[in-house]
Amino acid sequence: MRIELPYGRSRIVWDAPDSVRVLSSNIGNLKGSGTGEAIVRRAMRSPIGSPRLSELAKGKRTCAVIISDHTRPVPSRDILPPILEELRAGNPAIDITLLVATGCHRATTRAELTDKLGEELAASLRIVVHDCRKNNVRIGELPSGAPLSIDAVAAETELLIAEGFIEPHFFAGFSGGRKSVLPGICEATTVLGNHCSRFIDSPFARTGTLDGNPIQTDMTAAARLARLAYIVNVVIDEEKRTVAAFAGDFDAAHRAGCEFLRPFCMVAPHAAELVITTNGGAPLDQNLYQCVKSMTAAEAAAKEGGVIILCAECADGIGGESFYAALSGCQSAEALYDGILETPQEKTAPDQWQSQILARVLKRHPVILVTRKELERTVRNMKMQYAPSLPEAVEIGRAMTRNDAEITVIPNGVSVIVSP
């Protein structure tokens, strides 16, 4: 059986034993009608739970459009032209700013913005890259008790809207919608409070779960307090092309998109001793920090003590100094996990949530990372094993279990919801 696994901007091709089971989403069956821009335009003509954007723009002097950063494969070239057209149809004089939702990530570079938006848009629009440590304004308090501070551009605009895309998310349930505000344009203190150890430990803070999820509850409240008036969220296929779009009220349109996508992502687990996965290739596998997402899919499909093999290029390295320090500096994954659980909300540290989830995985499963040779020492320091190729990783995994170990492959771990 020949299996292709996304890896950076290329693929790993593996001639797998015929006994291997493959858990793939049905996203490959998603077919769009027309171009991505045409799909977006149709959605915007019939917004869900909201007037048309052109109506919302009337009488507004300013509009801030929250756009995703370099870590998300949002097809902004499909979404932004129809948004700009409708805004200006409703109010030709409206002053538009693009606000890049970096959350607590590093700043998006000018080159990355040009790659994302294209030369014309990148050069013709005012663009502000959010900084979670400065130029933020407190506007309220979240249900959890955490303070809500957002980018001053968003706080001061008369019309706040957002683009985004919807995919399963490993602790917020799904990406998109309210996540453009929290964590997208929030101050670090707000993000840390929302991502506290108690919330991350909730059994409802899992892939595909919105209702009862305390992280989602805070995020929705943040979007309401920020007066997020309208969203355009898309669903993309495995080639990152727009196949569906949902526009309108940030909650109603987002939920409609989630329910549309859900059946395409659901897979039934086949518990195995070896589970192989990826983070979907670039840009999602650009650093190890992002790759914790796909590890949770493998976690849900592995037998107790089973080995997880992750293939990820990590072209941008680890993705967080505190994330690396937590894993490399701890005595064991168990000790790290227990220590994080004892951390109160107001003491949440940067990247603590990612360290907590990876520690949770490592408590139960050895992880082998197939990645670039220069990351070997770093990987080992973070309590994982390194392998230069997938066949060698499989041999290491078999030595840790048994030679005829059952193998499950999840070609794209961020595209599935593993559910009994």
Note the main attributes of this structure.
2-enoyl-CoA Hydratase, Chain A, domain 1, 420 residues, 20 strands, single chain, six-stranded parallel β-sheet, alpha/beta
Could you describe the largest sheet, including whether it forms a barrel?
Answer: 6 strands, parallel
In CATH terms, the superfamily of the largest domain is LarA, N-terminal domain
Shape, principal axes of CA atoms: globular
The Cα radius of gyration reads 21 Å
Question: Strand content of the residues, in percent?
Answer: 15-25%
Give the CATH topology of the largest domain.
Answer: Rossmann fold
Question: What is the domain total for the residues?
Answer: 2
In CATH, the architecture of the largest domain is: 3-Layer(aba) Sandwich
Helix content: 25-40%
Q: What is the residue-averaged pLDDT? A: 96
What structural category characterises the helix and strand content?
Answer: alpha/beta
Number of strands: 20
Q: What is the CATH level 1 assignment of the largest domain?
A: Alpha Beta
Record the strand order, biggest sheet: 3-19-15-16-17-18
Contiguous uncertain segments of 5+ residues? none
Q: Output the number of helix runs.
A: 16
